[in-house]
Sequence to fold (93 residues):
Amino acid sequence: MRRSIDDRLLSLADLPSGADDVAELSWAVAVCDDYDDATPHVVLTLEPLGRPGEGLAAHLSPDHARRLVRALSDALREIGEPLTLTPTTKEHQ
Fold:
């Protein structure tokens, strides 16, 4: 089983100006259990915009996915932003 959860394109309009290391990317989150032991994992994929198949995919165990969620939550708090979760729909893009 492989199921897409959410994805987003990050164009230059979405990126901060003045940073030398920014790149147009797309990210996608999916769930997958296509492994020998059929254990589900969260798959986080980052790809250069317009170059599908050239990115990196992290197959995260539930513990690693939770650690990533905590790190993102901590980063939002560090910049003064609340962790407000909204339903994932294409309308939020």
